[in-house]
């Protein structure tokens, strides 16, 4: 029994955050990664913006280039999962078909889609990079949520509200989901944090 549990918890898992720009994907993903790391499990963080500057440098924002960027992130994530790693990915990944393609790269049950369901109006108010303002002025084209679609997940395992909940509260919601599905040990949720 113990070896079965150890084997289950040592298997990999990918937590895939998707949502509009400025929805809170990276912030919540970083909070989750920090909590998991503090509990003694190694975590790999793949942020769409960071990957774009290194692994996908030179790609534009056409649908084909966006899909290729997501496919690359998905491939790296699937290799980490295949080798027993815990990987957290935060990428707009606006198109449902490519998200489903990434899901199919991993063993069933090892890809957890997290939809960060922040309303467009809130994302525009946050706008830390000023991209929504530029898109509204026509200075940036093909911007997700403005003049390029964001296809809402139909069956995300988790949907987050970043208006009502803090990033840490949302991170613990995800952690609770992982515990319920026996993807991480219940000890992962430190006793002092159970009140959140």
Describe this structure in words.
It contains eight helices and five strands. By secondary structure, it is α/β, with parallel strands linked by helices. It has one domain (2-187): P-loop containing nucleotide triphosphate hydrolases (Rossmann fold), CATH 3.40.50. Helix 2 crosses helix 8 (167-180) and helix 4 runs parallel beside helix 5.
Number of helices: 8
Domains counted in the coordinates: how many? 1
Largest sheet: 5 strands, parallel
Which value, in Å, is the CA radius of gyration?
17 Å
Mean pLDDT: 90
CATH topology name, in short, is Rossmann fold
With strands numbered from the N-terminus, the spatial order across the biggest sheet is 2-3-1-4-5
Percent range for helical residues? 40-55%
Which structural class do you get from the secondary structure elements?
alpha/beta
CATH superfamily: P-loop containing nucleotide triphosphate hydrolases
> Into which percentage range does the β-strand content fall?
5-15%
What is the string of SSEs from the N terminus onward? Answer: HEHEHHEHEHHEH
Shape: globular
What is the name of the CATH architecture? 3-Layer(aba) Sandwich
Q: Which residues sit in consecutive blocks of at least 5 with pLDDT less than 50? A: 191-196
Beta strand count: 5
- By CATH reckoning, the class would read Alpha Beta
State the distance separating the first and last CA atoms. 31 Å
């Amino acid at each position: 029994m113990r070896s079965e549990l150890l084997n289950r918890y040592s298997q990999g898992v990918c937590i895939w955050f998707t949502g509009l720009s400025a929805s809170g994907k990276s912030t919540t993903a970083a909070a989750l990664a920090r909590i998991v790391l503090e509990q003694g499990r190694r975590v790999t963080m793949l942020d769409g913006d960071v990957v774009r500057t290194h692994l996908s440098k030179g790609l534009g924002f056409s649908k084909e280039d966006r899909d290729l960027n997501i496919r690359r992130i998905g491939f790296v994530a699937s290799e980490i999962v295949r080798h027993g790693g815990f990987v957290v990915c935060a990428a707009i990944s606006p198109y449902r078909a490519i998200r489903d393609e990434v899901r199919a790269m991993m063993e069933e049950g090892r890809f957890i889609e997290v939809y960060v369901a922040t309303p467009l109006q809130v994302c525009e108010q946050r706008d830390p990079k000023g991209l929504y303002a530029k898109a509204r002025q026509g200075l940036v084209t093909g911007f997700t949520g403005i003049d390029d679609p964001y296809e809402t997940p139909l069956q995300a395992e988790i949907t987050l509200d970043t208006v009502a909940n803090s990033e840490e509260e949302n991170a613990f919601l995800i952690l609770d989901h992982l515990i319920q599905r026996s993807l991480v040990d219940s000890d992962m949720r430190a006793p002092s944090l159970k009140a959140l």
